[in-house]
Amino acid sequence: MAGTTNAFEMAQRQFDHVADLLKLDPQVREILRWPLREFHFRIPVRMDDGTIKVFQGFRVQHNDARGPNKGGIRFHPSETIDTVRALATWMTWKCAVVDIPLGGGKGGVVVDPATMSTGEKERLVRGWVQQMWKNIGPRKDVPAPDVGTTPQMMGWMMDEFSKLQGDYTPGVITGKPVGGGGSLGRTEATGFGVIYTVREAMKHLGMDSSKCTAALQGFGNVSQYAAIGFVEMLKGKVVCVSCWDREDKVSYTFTKMDGVDPRFLMSITDQYGTIDKAKAKAAGYVIEDGEAWISKEVDVLIPAALEGQVNADTVKKISSKVRIIAEGANGPTTPEADEVIKERGIFMVPDFLCNAGGVTVSYFEGVQNDMNFYWSKEEVLSKLDEKMTVAFQGVLDMALKEKVYMRDAAYMVSIARVVKAMQLRGWI
Ligand SMILES: NC(=O)C1=CN([C@@H]2O[C@H](COP(=O)(O)OP(=O)(O)OC[C@H]3O[C@@H](n4cnc5c(N)ncnc54)[C@H](OP(=O)(O)O)[C@@H]3O)[C@@H](O)[C@H]2O)C=CC1
Ligand SMILES: O=C(O)CCC(=O)C(=O)O
């Protein structure tokens, strides 16, 4: 968890604000403010040197009125139960806003995966499944990757579950490697989904994307494909990306005002998103401090790292040129910063709409697993584009109709769908 922001307090404040606007029944509110179920467990792992290390694991199932809980598993040294609660809650709203029949869940382990060998990581993820297998499954709860976890880890988890269950069960987990039950397009899905929503926001604002610039925070899975999409689909220019440097333990911004080449930067980035500084410098990139991305004079800001990055302090640095903030990350903007962004009239594409591409293709992956029939990448991405475009339009229509901020409009759409499912099931 970034800084001192408590992500779950943030998620509850966002929800309470909209619940007030909607005059939501207090009993319904009480159900939706908290996760329905939480699992806290310890995972003993035999390390390569023969010792045993015990890791703290979590799984939170926020609400499954619309379908099985769904959401990634994050491996991060600063993971907390409140971060996982927030991320699980946002998953409920995310699946509802893109109208896929799934609920909200999230998992985590307090660990820095970069400090572990491949064998240790495999034993850790298998240990996670050994603790949770009775409470996950294609019709219960379907995990996926998030920060610090990879398709290979999802493959190991699927294998462990299948062994314990005694049946090949690819649908227990998504984000698996292609060829091992995974879907084509899942790797690109979240970043490309971000760009589909940016494209729609630009259409709404009458902006010509080929004349637009963007600055991105983070250079992991989401940011890499958002950068590629901005350059290759929108024909715009990305002037910088920032990343966390594992050796120096600080973040840096890699800037090239005539346009970064995301595919080149990917080729010099390690598996955890750290860009090789020497190679970047040799290719003409200027290396600035980690917060430089937020003060760039660009049309679009895409925070795609962790929570709480656009906050009361950093929001002041946003240039007057910025017209769109597209939240690739979950929870990057604090409620204090939201107030400033609202006042300044910057168009917000809120996280659980903006980054819903990942879970949407995860849903497609589950559908393909159920059918045991796999689609082409073109088919996956065109279905994704359609889902994201329809979802964006639904939220924009709500924002215009109710004259509310885009984040509030997204909550209104999602809350209505979840409440309806709870009513139809007789929960309320
Ligand atoms: N992957 C997915 O499908 C989805 C992810 N998301 C969200 O998107 C965000 C990014 O996830 P994802 O790309 O998958 O994760 P990754 O682990 O692939 O990438 C996250 C990147 O952000 C970097 N980072 C961390 N802190 C900072 C910082 N202060 N400044 C700059 N960079 C930083 C990380 O560096 P390091 O690893 O070195 O710490 C890493 O490179 C998260 O909020 C995640 O929950 C949302 C929807 C779906
Ligand atoms: O693909 C998924 O199921 C979940 C992705 C995720 O964790 C997220 O959207 O935050």
Distance between the termini: 34 Å
What strand line-up does the widest sheet have? 9-8-7-6-10-11-12
Shape: globular
Give the CATH architecture of the largest domain.
3-Layer(aba) Sandwich
Q: Quaternary arrangement of the chains shown?
A: single chain
Specify the number of helices.
Answer: 14
N-to-C order of helices and strands: HHEEEHEHEHHEHEEHHEEEHEHHHH
CATH topology of the largest domain: Rossmann fold
Proportion in β-strands: 15-25%
Q: Hetero groups bound?
A: NADPH dihydro-nicotinamide-adenine-dinucleotide phosphate, 2-oxoglutaric acid
Give Rg in angstroms: 20 Å
Overall domain count = 2
Report the strand count.
12
Largest sheet: 7 strands, mixed
- Tell me, what is the CATH class of the largest domain? Alpha Beta
Mean pLDDT: 97
Runs in which pLDDT lies below 50 for 5 or more consecutive residues are none
- Helix percentage range: 40-55%
Site (Important for catalysis): 146
Pfam families: ELFV_dehydrog, ELFV_dehydrog_N
Binding site for substrate: 70, 94, 362
Active site: 106 (proton donor)
